[in-house]
Amino acid sequence: MPPVSSIPNALSFLKANLRSITALAAIIAGLMAPSAAAGDASREREVLRFALVRGPCFLESAARPNQHVEALGEEAGVWGSLGGGFEGWAYPFKLFDGWSLFAGDEGGHLKGLQSLATRHVSAPHFSQLEYAGTDWHLTTTWFVPRAIPGALLLLDYEGSHDLRLALRFRPSLAPMHLTPGGPLAASWEESRHELVVRESIRHLELRVSCPFATAHREIGADGEQEIQFALPRRISRRGFVPIGVSFGFPARPDARGVMDQLRTGAKALFAEALEHYATLISRAPRVVTPDSAVNAALVWSVVSLDQLRIHHPDLGYGLVSGYSSSGRGTRPRYCWFFEEPTLTSCAYHWLGLSGQVREALRFLQRFQRPDGKTVHEIVQSLSYWPNYFQEFLYAYLHSDGPVYYLFAYGDYYRATGDLEFVRAEWPRIRRTLDWCFSAMDPSDGLIRIEPGDWGSSESSRGVWKDTQLQGMWVRVLRDLGRLAQVVGETALAERCQRVARQAQSALDARMWDEETGTYLWGLDREGLPLKSLVPHHAVSFWLGTFPMEHVERSLERMAAADFRTDWGVRSLALSDPKYDPQNYQAGSVWPVWNAGVIISDYRHHRSVEGYRHWQAMVRARTLDALGPMPEVLDGRCFQRLAEGVPHQMFSELAVVNGFFDGLLGLQVDAPARQVELAPRLPPTWNMLQVDRIPCGTGFLDLRIQRGRGEYTLDFKLDWPGGAQLRLAPELPAGSQLQSASLDGRTVSCDPEELQAATRVSLILQGCSGRHILRFRHRGGVDWLPVDEPLTPGTTSRNLRVVRARWQESAWQLRLEGLPGRSYPVDFLTDRFVASAIPDGRVERRNTAWRVVLSAPRDAPLNAAGFVRWDAEVRFRQRETGREAAGSSAKESPHSDF
Asked: Is 237 in contact with 220 (CB distance < 8 Å)?
């Protein structure tokens, strides 16, 4: 700075030479311009230009701060939320957490973008978030390639000015469940516009690339990094500014090489992921119904289950159980290997993914103990945890685990007929069965939960014998008897069948509670009954064998309002003193247990309740995330439990098996060449089409059309050599069968009047190829309560149907509802409503009727605040006079209202 006395002279000089200085500045700017343009051109080459094709399925919704967002590959994944930020993983290492974007305002201050998020779009191969400012629009797309440890965040910007942004995140480089091996060192490589973070003990490296970066700094005491960059307004609509994330360590390609793959091969990597999911979906069953949410839900089931298959650099391919944020820790629930593929195999088989079940069983059984007990959890950081099996409490904590393993082998054989795999695995199967026999109480044949272990309900070490475990044990003994027979161990087969009979007898005698009309939770370690009402044993109602009367009474108990919410059955009844709607195990709603209730409702003449319940599970798919099923829901309102995982494997049972085992009534026994099909269409569906259902070595296609008095089942069984096909479609209750034909020829059928439907059965021996079964009928009565839609945060308010029976031309109903509340129920029939008692209001709607039933105001309240009452809606066959004139006989009772 010049001395003060020289300032007047300097000002005089500037005034005298202003034009010359201006001209000189212009010359200098011109000389510098080519250099700046070269820099811009260099960065422009980093812009990616290809179409982000959404592919065969996608979901979208308004963006919410806590909505789970995920993008997944086999070797890496990114997930999180707008409110909590995103975290990245390259298995088995955590790369970063707290990943968030900030925009700069005119004053230079940074503001989080989460408040500007408007839209979330989820496709199987990417996840998008859209943001809107006053005069700009930004779309960010997370993409994780199929088979490299890296990720791309693609930024698509449109605006009237350059948008200044800042990216903040905290590097981790810690193995899952563990801490980093050493301190992290961060540096900036200007030539590549990359932040490099290294951990020297394990020689790990994380790189984050941003071609339009303008500055980098470390902020905070915990190593949080900030990269500032600007998105130019001149980038075309089809241009994406990429932020790349890559990881390297000695067992993998180096991080720099991975980053180069992302930069130069992004288009091909994207196409590879798109093709993978397109092929996956094209090979899975295709479901078409009148409900688009149902169609999408079943497509996403195959996507979500496939996305749980990862490739671990040390352990190989396996199935993890879920994805959820770890926050500042290193434990993402439940992104490691569990025994859950054992029960979930029931869903994998229906979706054509039996190969993944086989792979998962082989993976898990590598960790079988010498005594035959099977593993419950294997962490991804096993290579970095020398004393894992001694230090990790949960590795072998489940006494019910070995039973589920054996179930999976029996179910695999039933679904595939793959005897070669069974023979190869037989030594492991036999060791696990021997362990189960050692854990069995010889006095009754029931499995004992070892002291300190868990059974069907975690955190409950006081249970000695639980009903769910015993029901599965009986099923397993029968399946293993069959397997022992086919591998030539006749004595073992006989023992299995003998113990199965003993255990079944003890189960019926010791676990049924006549006082409450339902099954006990189980017995405590003193052999005393545990009477808390839990739904776990409904899975055994589905998969096991229980007396019909006991199951039906139990299902009525589970249908009551203190047990069932509008979105499923609670894990502990509300009336229990230990009930807590936000407790992980004692009041929340688990889709996995609800799968058993849904299918059991369908199989025990409660198809209306099965359908309503299943619909709630379908809606849960978009409750918190877009695509995956949540692990557990709140017991008080329709939202994901904070402790629950947004993407959980075994929750798919509620949607997948609720449809195939429940609504379609399908059972396949590949070795026996037997198929059972007993579809129970919802009253408001007039059609259903399902193609490519796995059946033995082939497939089953089916189409159902319903109209006024007509029912057509068009099916094609592509199974070389044919199979025995047992058909048992259900018509509306009270239907009078007028004719039945198969491929145009009259067939003899004996209709069976059930409690809530008319069943028509037919057995076809050696069936193969295409066939058409047609029924003509009249006088049937279908019905369905008109529920208020499930929206996030709503509480239970819809009608409870405890019992519904068709008897003497009347529906006799036992109901529960909120006092004084009116509940509309639609009856679809060509009959005439004669009366609705008590005080039912009747409205005519085309050839259907709406009966509005009101809950009493002065009846006793149960724990849920609902009242119970009985109602009866009576019908007569034909209308007369003025009533007939007001009808619309040409309209289908299965049309929309």
From this structure: no
Identify the domain boundary among 778, 798, 831.
778
Which backbone phi and psi does 250 adopt, to 5 degrees?
-55, -30
Which pLDDT does position 2 carry in this prediction? Answer: 35
- Let me know if residue 508 belongs to a domain: yes
For residue 291, count other CB atoms closer than 10 A to its CB: 15
Average the pLDDT over 272-292 and give the result: 98
What tokens does 43 get? 């960065």
Question: β-strands 674-677, 723-727: how paired?
Answer: parallel
Residue 109 banded pLDDT, cuts 50, 70, 90: confident
d(CA 332, CA 251): 22
- Kindly report the average pLDDT of the chain as a whole number: 91
Q: Which is more confident, 882 or 521?
A: 521
In 3-state terms, what secondary structure has residue 649?
A: coil
The angle subtended at Cα 783 by Cα 778 and Cα 786, nearest 5°, is: 150
Mean pLDDT for the stretch of residues 240-257: 92
Identify whether residues 376 and 501 lie together within a single domain: yes
Decide if 176 is inside a domain: yes
Give the residue with greater pLDDT, 9 vs 639.
Answer: 639
Buried b (16+ CB within 10 A) or exposed e, 66-93: ebbbbbbbbbbbbbbbbebbbbbbbbbb
Q: Is the pLDDT reported for residue 42 higher than 90? A: no
Structural domain boundaries, residue 18: 4-44
Residues 71 and 126 sit within 8 Å (Cβ to Cβ): yes
DSSP 431: H
Q: Is residue 890 part of a domain?
A: no
Provide the pLDDT for residue 633: 98
**Are residues 797 and 744 part of one domain?**
no
pLDDT digits (tens, 9 = 90+) for 127-179: 999 999 999 999 999 999 999 999 999 999 999 899 999 999 999 999 999 99
- Kindly state the tokens that stand for 257: 């090489």
- In the prediction, which pLDDT does 499 show? 98
Query: Residue 295: what are its φ and ψ, rounded to 5°?
Result: -60, -45
Instruction: Assess whether 249 and 290 both reside in one domain.
Output: no
- The structure tokens listed for 178 are 């563990």
Nearest to 544 by CA among 515, 575, 508: 508
Identify whether the C-beta of residue 530 lies closer than 8 Å to the C-beta of residue 586. Answer: no
Considering the domain architecture, whether residues 380 and 236 belong to the same structural domain is answered as no
Q: Decide if 891 is inside a domain.
A: no
pLDDT greater than 50 at residue 11: no
Q: Are β-strands 698-707 and 730-731 bridged in parallel, bridged antiparallel, or unpaired?
A: unpaired
CATH number of the domain within which 120 lies: 2.70.98.40
- Considering the domain architecture, whether residues 609 and 725 belong to the same structural domain is answered as no
Tell me 601's DSSP state.
Answer: H
C-alpha distances out from residue 545 to 149, 540, 548, 551, Å: 47, 7, 9, 10
Sequence-separated (6 or more) residues with CB below 8 Å from residue 265: none
Is the preceding peptide bond at 334 cis, omega within 30 degrees of 0? yes
In sequence order, the β-bridge partners of residue 102 are 112, 166
Distance CA 597, CA 542 (A): 8
> Are residues 261 and 358 located together in one domain of the fold?
no
Question: Do 494 and 358 fall into the same domain?
Answer: yes
H or E segment at 538? Answer: helix 538-543
Q: What's residue 664's pLDDT?
A: 98
| Across 64-81, average pLDDT | 97
Give φ, ψ of 425 to 5 degrees: -90, -5
Q: Which residues contact 340 (CB under 8 A, 6 or more apart)?
A: 319, 321, 649, 650
| pLDDT given for residue 878 in this prediction | 66
Domain boundary (663, 685, 709) is at 663
Mean pLDDT to the nearest integer, 562-575? 97
Report the number of distinct structural domains present in the chain.
Answer: 5
Same domain, 751 and 822: no
Asked if residue 24 has pLDDT above 60, the reply is no
Cβ contacts of 390 within 8 Å, gap of 6 or more: none
